[in-house]
């Protein structure tokens, strides 16, 4: 094709351009008569005279050739434009087909999932049906987000990452990877690096892993800048979703997956009247970077009793490296925590207050021990009896007789403190005291309790002395969320029952996200580990100062 950059358009009326359109039918009458003089006929000679050679050459002369070039270039440009438009249409159709394939392979509740925390949120089909019937119809596509990544991964192992990784991922992003391995293999995902905007509960940007187990869906959501342990799923098909909003973006994530046999994974759902669970490879050392979650459910009218027959994890005072955590609820984001355990001391027998219990095992990249094994069993509330030295709560738990009418609610429903009119114990008086530290005035609560058993602080005077070191940060914009966290820890909220409540994990995460640079600038150490605080928003379980 000729170089179009040298084509120019002129407005000169020179004679060289007169014969651009070489069609005699459109020439002026005078010119036509001059040129076709040789075609004139006479009444006696019917035969036409051939035109002169100069006329025949003029029809294909330099002017006509220039016109052919211009017309050809115009036609070529038109065809090029049509080709580009057709290619754009085909690309759009192909992209739409890929996106429709991803949406078609998603579980029923994939695109209708509501904003939640970074914890695991099991849902069942009944709940999803109820949500669909009580909420307005949701579109199957989400316009603000664009699918520019993702795909269907069917190899036995592989890797995937956010767009531009390790650079920042784009805003308004929706990426869905569908990982599918042949049964009976299960999907194991290792997230090697993670930098996604937002603290828990991950309302801005998030990475989400969803698996479909029988009639329920299990969702685990991650954000922040700490890579989670290896995710051992219990499904052959897993959906991994990355979403971002229009604001701050991190460097995203990098992850690897592989297909494993059921004997090499951990976690899952337990629904029988009794069952067994253990750490991976037990009694051999468990692997590094593990996250195993067991969801235990029994029939109505029963509670769950969990007993450990072997227990050996990495030893640490606050159990933040390797640990087993037991929740009295259907997942790790609601209900009270029955306990977090590590080291070599056997945990006590644990009993749920209802029909659900969740057991979570976490291992970091450091020391590994032989792990644990445990058994659970369903106990009927009707057939359950307590010994003569114990009192039976209405929820089925047994508490010691000496705890009756002592002013403390030892039963979950407070049954041990009901009908205590003739009690010989003195009437219950709250040990709470008003907050007197000036820095912590104006919180959502004004009562605290000392001594502070978490930080070993004797009274408010000692707490005020320790808080003075943070006054240098009062002029910073991030001081308010930091103040709420510090006051929540140094002067914890006193509950009406006389106990104290730690601040919720979201309070700590917000302060950490907004003040981490300022603390580093002033050489302050991070005051607390947010993962040790309750991951809940329930005011009965933690405080929101």
UniProtKB/TrEMBL annotation:
Residues 107-148 are annotated as: Disordered. InterPro entries: CUB_dom (IPR000859), Frizzled_dom (IPR020067), Frizzled_dom_sf (IPR036790), LDL_receptor-like_sf (IPR036055), LDLR_class-A_CS (IPR023415), LDrepeatLR_classA_rpt (IPR002172), Sperma_CUB_dom_sf (IPR035914). Residues 120-138 have a biased composition (Polar residues). GO terms for molecular function: serine-type endopeptidase activity. Residues 427-545 form the FZ domain. One of its GO terms (cellular component) is extracellular space. It comes from the Eukaryota. Residues 149-260, 266-379 form the CUB domain. Disulfide bonds join 386-398, 393-411, 405-420. Its main location: membrane. It is found in: Cell membrane. Gene3D superfamilies: Frizzled cysteine-rich domain, Low-density Lipoprotein Receptor, Spermadhesin, CUB domain. Keywords: Disulfide bond, Membrane, Repeat, Signal-anchor, Transmembrane, Transmembrane helix. The chain crosses the membrane at residues 66-90. It is a single-pass type II membrane protein. Belongs to the LDLR family. PANTHER family: COMPLEMENT COMPONENT 1, S SUBCOMPONENT-RELATED, MANNAN-BINDING LECTIN SERINE PROTEASE 2. This is Membrane frizzled-related protein. It comes from Perca fluviatilis (European perch). The lineage of its organism: Eukaryota, Metazoa, Chordata, Craniata, Vertebrata.
């Amino acid at each position: 094709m000729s170089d179009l950059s040298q084509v120019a358009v002129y407005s000169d009326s020179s004679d060289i351009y007169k014969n651009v359109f070489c069609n005699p039918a459109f020439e002026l009458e005078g010119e036509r008569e001059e040129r076709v003089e040789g075609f004139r006929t006479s009444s006696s000679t019917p035969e036409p005279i051939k035109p002169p050679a100069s006329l025949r050459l003029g029809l294909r002369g330099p002017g006509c050739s220039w016109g052919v070039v211009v017309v050809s270039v115009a036609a070529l440009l038109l065809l090029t434009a049509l080709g580009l438009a057709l290619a754009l249409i085909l690309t759009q159709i192909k992209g739409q087909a890929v996106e429709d394939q991803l949406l078609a392979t998603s579980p029923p509740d994939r695109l209708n999932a509501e904003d939640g925390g970074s914890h695991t949120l099991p849902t069942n089909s009944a709940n999803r049906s109820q949500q669909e019937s009580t909420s307005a119809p949701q579109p199957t596509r989400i316009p603000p987000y664009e699918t520019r990544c993702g795909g269907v991964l069917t190899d036995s192992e592989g890797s995937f990452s956010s767009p531009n990784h390790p650079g920042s991922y784009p805003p308004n992003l929706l990426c869905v990877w569908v990982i599918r391995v042949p049964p009976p293999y299960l999907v194991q995902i290792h997230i090697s690096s993670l930098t996604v905007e937002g603290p828990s509960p991950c309302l801005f940007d998030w990475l989400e892993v969803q698996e479909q187990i029988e009639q329920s869906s299990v969702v685990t959501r991650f954000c922040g800048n700490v890579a989670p342990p290896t995710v051992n799923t219990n499904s052959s098909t897993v959906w991994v979703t990355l979403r971002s909003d229009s604001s701050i973006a991190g460097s995203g994530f990098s992850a690897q997956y592989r297909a494993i046999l059921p004997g090499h994974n951990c976690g899952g759902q337990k629904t029988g009247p009794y069952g067994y669970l253990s750490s991976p490879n037990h009694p051999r050392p468990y692997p590094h970077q593990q996250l195993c979650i067991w969801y235990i459910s029994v029939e109505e009218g029963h509670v769950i009793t969990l007993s450990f027959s072997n227990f050996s994890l990495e030893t640490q005072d606050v159990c933040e490296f390797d640990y087993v955590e037991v929740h009295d609820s259907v997942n790790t984001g609601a209900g009270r925590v029955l306990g977090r355990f590590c080291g070599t001391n056997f945990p006590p027998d644990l009993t749920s207050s209802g029909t659900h219990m969740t057991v979570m095992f976490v291992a970091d990249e450091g020391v590994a021990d032989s792990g644990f094994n445990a058994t659970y069993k369903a106990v009927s509330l009707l057939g359950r009896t307590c010994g003569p030295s114990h009192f039976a709560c209405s929820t089925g738990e047994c508490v010691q007789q000496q705890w009756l009418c002592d002013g403390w609610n030892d039963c979950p429903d407070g049954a041990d403190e009901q009908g205590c009119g003739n009690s010989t114990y003195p009437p219950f008086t709250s040990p709470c005291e008003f907050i007197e530290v000036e820095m912590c005035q104006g919180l959502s609560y004004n009562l605290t309790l000392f001594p502070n058993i978490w930080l070993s602080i004797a009274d408010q005077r000692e707490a005020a002395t320790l808080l003075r070191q943070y006054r240098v940060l009062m002029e910073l914009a991030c001081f308010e969320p930091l103040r709420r966290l510090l006051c929540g820890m140094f002067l914890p909220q006193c509950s009406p029952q006389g106990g104290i409540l730690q601040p919720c994990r979201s309070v700590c995460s917000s302060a950490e996200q907004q003040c981490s640079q300022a603390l580093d600038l002033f050489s302050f150490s991070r005051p607390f580990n947010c993962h040790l605080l309750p991951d809940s928003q329930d005011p009965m379980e933690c405080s929101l100062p």
